[in-house]
Specification:
This protein has about 280 residues and is of the alpha/beta class. It folds into two domains: about 70 residues; about 170 residues. The protein is about 50% helix and about 10% strand. Strands 1, 2, 3, 4, 5, 6 and 7 form a seven-stranded mixed β-sheet that branches.
């Protein structure tokens, strides 16, 4: 499930309190006392946490998820819808969720305390191909040659994800998503930004930026430039390790099947939060 036994026990304690808080705030006008009635197939908070973590890790169908826990597929679907926001609340209380917007230098320093280098990259996740041609063309990624959803993320030297943009269609360019997030101008000049060739022009927005040199047909790279590019790529590999850590979960690597709005954004947020929690406990 992406967590050790010790990490699972630590997260379970906070998950229990967040579950009670969430149920209390969303009970409506019910008069029955909390905890009354028949006990379900997921009686303890640990059972509920294992249920939702297994769903994110393996991303099974509701039929298989229900079979593993002795539930009907409709009941498994209801539990997933209930426990996803509880897990997000738990990770938020653990202060491991990445920032979704950074509007000032103070917010940047809060998301990246004491950082000297940040690493920027974009990542995509596959989605089912829409029947509508217009929507399919908007989601089509020429790089992956399939329909995808894309985000831009920023990490520090420890591979911790400190910023995660909102999910957009795979057709959009990485640099365009970064400009839309409007985060570069809030990065202090003392912080070095490392990016790949997909972010050409970022050095005009932030002078303390290191980008690999890009060859053209008429101006090939010299041996010194190739050596420099190799050095930059070796340091920038940190953000690739963070992306690999997020994609340990099957909900990020398998084609998205859920139809709920913004569920792909929820998946990548929870994946990044679990990765940060794993790094903090490591």
């Amino acid at each position: 499930m992406g967590l050790s036994l010790e990490e699972l026990k630590t997260l379970s304690a906070h998950f229990s309190s967040c579950y009670l808080t969430y149920r209390k705030n969303n009970r409506g006008a019910h008069q029955r006392k909390m905890g009354a009635g028949q006990k379900g197939f997921l009686p303890t908070p640990l059972d509920k946490l294992v249920f939702i973590l297994l769903y994110l890790k393996c991303y099974p169908t509701y039929d298989l998820q229900g079979f593993l826990f002795g539930l009907e597929r409709t009941r498994a679907c209801r539990w997933v819808k209930l426990l996803l926001p509880v897990l997000e609340m738990t990770l938020g209380h653990e202060c491991v969720l990445p920032a979704r917007q950074i509007r000032s230098m103070e917010e940047f320093c809060h998301a990246f305390p004491g950082v000297r280098d940040v690493f920027i990259d974009g990542t995509e996740r596959p989605v089912q191909k829409p029947k509508n041609t217009r929507r399919r063309n908007k989601m089509y990624s020429g790089k992956k040659r399939q329909t995808t959803r894309k985000v831009v993320m920023m990490t520090d030297e420890t591979r911790r994800v400190g910023f995660l943009s909102l999910s957009k269609n795979g057709r959009r360019h990485d640099k365009r998503l970064l400009d839309k997030a409007d985060i570069v101008r809030h990065i202090p000049s003392t912080v070095t930004v490392w990016a790949d060739t997909g972010f050409q022009g970022i050095n005009k927005q932030h002078p303390n930026t290191l980008l690999p040199k890009k060859a053209t047909r008429k101006t090939p790279l010299s041996p010194e430039q190739k050596k420099e590019n190799k050095l930059i790529s070796g340091i920038r590999i940190t953000v690739e390790h963070a992306i690999a850590g997020i994609k340990r979960l099957g909900c990020m690597t398998q084609s998205l099947r859920n139809r709920r709005p913004f569920i792909d954004d929820t998946f990548i947020l929870l994946s990044a939060g679990l990765w940060n929690f794993h790094l903090r406990r490591d």
